[in-house]
Amino acid sequence: MGTGKFDLSKRNKKVAISRWKKILEKDMEKIKTKEQNPQCRLLKAKLLGFLAGDGCLSIRKMTEGRTSYEISFFPDHVNLAKVYINSFRGFYEREPKIINMNNYYKVIVWNKTACLDLLNTTKCGTLNWEIPLNYLSTDLLKKEWLKAFFDCEAHVSKRQIQLQSVNEKGILQVQDLLNYFNIESKVYKYERKNKNWNINYILCIMKKEYRKNFLNQIGFNHPEKLKKLKLHFMPTTHNQVVDLPRTLN
């Protein structure tokens, strides 16, 4: 009797695995179809940039035997969370959950199809992220990735746009892609005092003409960063000489 129950449980497990495999194959086919649509590819390019900047993809075995496929994004502004959620919903047809963590947001979704597709398209992780150049086949897709990545990583000041990473290969890829759009930058190496800490690579766009090129060609989804950058190119109105009409005596 015990053997019969075991055989039934084993057979049910096989049936369940077969069913989920068919569902996954169907979902993957749907993704292939979506990628024929240029607008859908833009949504995915945006997601890839966000996840390279402030994202995390993880596949974990849980204690009860099942596997967790988790996709997390940690923006510092609610507008970025909304852009990310709209993009994820538009491409993968799933609704991520947003959690307010006081000084940042956690946007999370558990989905096997999306997680596997993203991992097949790009590399993520602080040390390992790369620009998925094979996927970014058009200039528009490249710009969308850069915009989302700079949304997460860039700091905008009066004299420069700066971003930092411990990933040298990734930073140099970003520099090459900026050069492609005639946006010159410099990369500096910063070795920290504690030898156990990773070396920082700091990319800076300093010349005004190249910051303006960045504004006109790439820009930001992040409203505060976009506002700061635009302010540097606003015409000043103070101290201007105004010719008043002469009055006749």
Radius of gyration: 24 Å
Tally of contiguous helical segments:
8
Number of E strands? 8
The gross shape turns out to be globular
Strand content: 15-25%
Mean pLDDT: 88
Structural domains: how many: 1
CATH architecture, please? Roll
CATH topology: Endonuclease I-creI
> What kind of sheet is the major sheet?
4 strands, antiparallel
Output the helix-strand order: HHEEHEEHHEEHEEHH
Helix amount: 40-55%
What distance separates the N and C termini? 118 Å
User: What is the CATH C level class, in words?
Assistant: Alpha Beta
The structure class reads alpha+beta
Strand order of the largest sheet: 1-2-4-3
Question: Can you describe this structure?
Answer:
- The chain is an alpha+beta fold and 249 residues long.
- The chain has a single domain (12-231), classed as Homing endonucleases (Endonuclease I-creI, Roll), CATH 3.10.28.10.
- 49% of the residues lie in helices and 17% in strands.
- It contains eight helices and eight strands.
- The chain has a four-stranded antiparallel β-sheet with strand order 1-2-4-3.
- Strand 1 and strand 2 (67-73) form a beta hairpin.
- Helix 2 (38-54) runs parallel beside helix 5 (139-153).
- It is globular, with a radius of gyration of 24 Å.
- The N and C termini lie far apart (118 Å).
